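User: Predict the complex.
Assistant: Input components as received:
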Amino acid sequence: MDAFERSFTLHVPSSTENLAMIRDFVASIGAKAGFDENEAARITLAVDEACANVIEHAYSSEDTHAVTIRATLDNKDLVFDIIDNGRGFVAGDMAQVDVEELIRQRKSGGLGLRLIRAVMDEVNYQITPGEKNELHMVKRLHRG
Amino acid sequence: MKRASEEKRDRVTQSFQVAISDIGAVRVMSIEGYLDAHTAPSFESSIENEIRSGKIRLVVDCARLTYISSAGLGVFMSFLEEVREQGGDIKLAAITPKVFQVFDVLGFPKLFDITPAVKEAVEQFNRPRES
């Protein structure tokens, strides 16, 4: 096997102010993996959504915690793991409600996970509240 | 010396800006930069101020919007019902293709009036809404 794996990690304080830095990090890895500009932009959006969820929900917008973004690139996949040690959240329920209904209810949330699922080929998470939560997202390098 | 809260506000202002203008009875909000979970609260208060002061015919000019995430989309969603109930609307104009793909994934084109240019969005206010 000539599997060649490269790993890149970014640790940032849990402030939404750092989302711009996270996006720069993800966009450059997306480009390194060979995705075109539009696809890299979609991947960047998915990771932004995941990190914003962690900051706002797992950490209740407290900026004194840490968010880790680990990217792993091999010859098949680009994988992002978003790791935090906050209050684990299950965002599954909102993803079922359609956007029209959210508008009727004047809701502003409930879209993040939907965008992540629309962009990534595989999404799953492991939650151990207060200890370690890990959102695992996979984007295949080649479709088919 | 600036206080920390002022410095934080300055950084938000650098990455996202709103400019206001009027075309007839329509208020045009031209947004520029990055609309994400960090800057969405500032846009939310801008749009809320407009609605509270009775401006319910709103066009959001997105020509210089370089990025939007769900936090930004959520601002549009949360006020749409309220302005339509009052006989107004929030119309979106001049969205770049890169930003449009995010609106499209969530089906926004079916729920919002989206036009290629501000002028057309303003003109739509003078015509009855198609349903």
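The longest strand of chain B covers residues 57-68.
Let me know if you want any component modeled separately.
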